[in-house]
Amino acid sequence: MTVVAVVGAQWGDEGKGKVIEAIAPKAALVVQYAGGYSPGQTLVAEGERFVLHVVPSGSLRSGKSCLLAQGMALDPRLVLEELEILETHGALAGDLRIDQRAQVVLPHHIALDQLREESEGASGSPRRGIGPAYMDAVGRRGIRMGDLLVPDGLEGRIAASIEASAHALRELGAPIPDAKQVLDEYVAAGEKLRSRIVDGSRLILDLRASGEMVVLEGPFGTMVDQDHGYYPFVVGASTVAGGACTGTGISPKAIDRVIGVAKAYITRPGLGPLPSEVTGDLASTLQDRGGELSPTSARPRRCGMFDVPVLRYSARVNGFDELALTKLDVLSGLDEIPVCVGYELDGDVRDEPPFEGQSRMQPLTEMLPGWTEPLSDCRAWEELPANARGYVEFIERNSGVRITLVSVGPDKAQTIRRDVD
Ligand code: GDP
């Protein structure tokens, strides 16, 4: 197993970081293949607490090298800021590389995103300009990280990108940035990052050829993928396993394994369909025990019962070879645990999310027996209570996806591997 894609099977926050630490402690490279601003990884260094949004602080701190791949949209100023925090606090053990083809987030992308959030209402998005930067990329106006190293003609291209948004900026009452000022600031940032800007596809394939392990980490989860999520409640990025190819520039044949990550229940940030949503005591229990708070708004995340149709769909779209099920420990103490096994839509039973009709469909629920014992000290499959094993086996049987890893706590040691071959 050399190149492994790790993909969120639900709406994100499934615990992909923890799973990567558990399965790939010796990975030569961890690659972020899309996105550009995560809700945040908390870093505690020398007694101070920081929340980092772009630089993969956990992996870098543990000595792994990381690549921000071409499928990302990056604000180079923020990358520098976060690198400085890690360096200053002695927490930069690994090497950070950035693909020359990654899109650049410019100040007007951020302004557009933030002003739209204010005018359209809270969507839960951090609004750091990623969506508008991707729109410029599709519109062939994008600036790429490698462009910052060759400034000839760049001012005109930045001006063209600003001009394309000028009407919207004026309507929202925002100032129009000065292209020359942007050029100077961004070229200076690019210069500081020069030694880190590489051809990422080449880097990954060279490591693969020498037998090293490379992990390709997807952002968010399948249900917010630009194309395959519950459109239009999606992000601008390709979060699915296919996005790992376009987001890095390697062939599908160079991905040796696709691992899905699903939480033992569901959470979703922001608006949009959540067919298995729960409210009341069950929601509060999952929010409290699971620490399900949005780092951006500090509001509790919407929670739901495990949604088997979502996993069936996600397995189909991503081609999971296996699944890691996280946060099983959060369910301890529930008498009974509801699981969504299908949907009723206009009198029909659906076993996967439908193309339309999400607001009319009703979840079909089965109740499974719960368990009282805490799971956080369990280290082997046999140590789990029978009903906890039954819960995992139920999901596996009903989704057709092999669950090879069960996580019972945030620490990488709190991981149970299952040999199901
Ligand atoms: P990612 O974006 O998919 O990597 O997910 P997050 O970084 O949002 O991880 C979710 C949170 O859950 C993190 O704080 C993890 O430390 C924590 N976590 C991961 N796996 C488990 C688990 O099995 N049990 C518990 N209780 N927490 C976990």
Describe this entry's structure for a reader.
The protein has 421 residues and is of the alpha/beta class. It folds into 3 domains: 3-100 and 196-257, Adenylosuccinate Synthetase, subunit A, domain 1 (Adenylosuccinate Synthetase, Chain A, domain 1, 3-Layer(aba) Sandwich), CATH 3.40.440; 104-192, Orthogonal Bundle (Adenylosuccinate Synthetase, subunit A, domain 2); 262-417, Adenylosuccinate Synthetase, Chain A, domain 3, CATH 3.90.170.10. Helices cover 32% and strands 21% of the residues. It has 12 helices and 20 strands. It has helices at residues 16-23, 57-61, 76-88, 107-120, 130-138, 154-171, 179-193, 200-209, 241-246, 280-290, 308-318, 386-399, and strands at 3-8, 29-32, 41-45, 48-52, 65-68, 73-74, 96-99, 103-104, 197-198, 214-217, 257-263, 266-268, 302-304, 306-307, 322-326, 336-345, 348-350, 362-369, 403-407, 415-417. The strands form 5 sheets. Strands 9-7-5-2-10-1-11-15-19-20 form a 10-stranded mixed beta sheet, with helices on both faces. A hairpin with a 2-residue loop joins strand 3 (41-45) and strand 4 (48-52). The radius of gyration is 22 Å and the shape is globular. The two termini are 16 Å apart. The model has no long low-confidence stretch (mean pLDDT 93). Guanosine-5'-diphosphate binds at residues 8, 12-18, 326-327, 329-330, 407-410.
* Unreliable stretches: none
What would CATH call the architecture of the largest domain? 3-Layer(aba) Sandwich
Global geometry: globular
Taking Cα atoms only, what radius of gyration do you get, to the nearest Å? 22 Å
- Bound heterogens, unique: guanosine-5'-diphosphate
Structural class: alpha/beta
Q: CATH topology of the largest domain, what is it called?
A: Adenylosuccinate Synthetase, Chain A, domain 1
Oligomer: single chain
Strand content: 15-25%
Tally of discrete structural domains: 3
Q: How far do the termini sit from each other?
A: 16 Å
- Give the CATH H-level superfamily of the largest domain: Adenylosuccinate Synthetase, subunit A, domain 1
What is the CATH top level name of the largest domain?
Alpha Beta
Helix fraction?
25-40%
